Amino acid sequence: AQKVTQAQTEISVVEKEDVTLDCVYETRDTTYYLFWYKQPPSGELVFLIRRNSFDEQNEISGRYSWNFQKSTSSFNFTITASQVVDSAVYFCALSEAVTGANNLFFGTGTRLTVIP
Amino acid sequence: KAGVTQTPRYLIKTRGQQVTLSCSPISGHRSVSWYQQTPGQGLQFLFEYFSETQRNKGNFPGRFSGRQFSNSRSEMNVSTLELGDSALYLCASRGRTGGARYQETQYFGPGTRLLVL
Fold it and tell me: What pLDDT digit, counting tens, does each position of B34-51 carry?
């Protein structure tokens, strides 16, 4: 069975601090895909990144970076020099190739508040 | 390209009524998925449609149904509404972030907030 765990329910940081959001997943599939989405108060889920199970290369996009480690089944997300606009709920999600890879299993989300 | 659009954005219904929500995917996307988001259960997959056929279904009762039209637009219907159906209903269309099929990603619309009284 698949499962995504985001143990941090809420995090508060002061602007310009770095923050890491944790994501741990479980799957029996050897091919799977991991995602991060941002949900601002408006409700829309904004796609941030997709990582394939066969690609463990870490990625950096501006102030965002992602650390994928298959050995620990983790896909952590770091925001460097946080800004107030980063305040949102962040979801980690998993989809599996065996089921057609189209339905996402989401974690419970981490609410990030950046204090000015 | 325009993003995923959903109508209506807000809806208030009473128990026992039925409701139909609409989703227009990103142009060129043929797959549409629906998700329910509630404070208690979080984000849960409802179903996915591709080329007018339901390809995958989550663990929801038969009161939840959907369909997809030839232009890829999709509708979701909930019959005999219950208080617990109050939620944000999100639609996602699937397409490629890059040139390879394995880079397909789901892009979400703004959602429809349904309140059942």
Answer: 999 999 999 999 999 998
